[in-house]
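Annex B. Sample input.
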Amino acid sequence: MAPVGPRASKEEFMHALGLNSQNPQHEQYYRAMRDVAIVVYNRLNEDTSNLLDSVAMDPSTRPPFFWHHIRPERQRWGIMEIAQHAGPLTEPFFARGATTGEHGPNWVAGWLLYSVFRSRDVRNNRNRRKGEDQGMFYKSSAVSVPVFVSHLVFSFGLGQASKTSQKSKQTEEDTPPKKEYYDPVRNG
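Annex B, continued. Sample output.
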């Protein structure tokens, strides 16, 4: 079984463990593993001493914290904590995740912890109120720049507004803009 990195999809992760996300029994294994990761996630969010100094010293820093703001040694601690506190149902999966390679010390626990951080990152909140992001887009002929709006990253251009016919303007307003979600590894 080849380890997968933290940015792999849930399906890729489960496949690497020999699980199928469409199988209800396998989904129970996944949820049990994720529950352990959520406990550790909550512990990492209890104290600013888990943060990089530059972030911890910022008085505006409040939980929930972001994965890339957690000290590497505390990330490693969290990964080991998850693997060590596996229950009888999930212990075999965590045992398979032990590695000294790139995704060490345990790629299963690492994927789960990163996944919990990523899913709880407010910049990825897909459950935003309806209409909160309306009217925030701007068509441009210049460069496209990601901008934080309503806890999401949207791409829009800066520069001169492009002149379009009334018909194409209507089409642009009717089609939802492309949403690009924040990823701490990619956008870090």
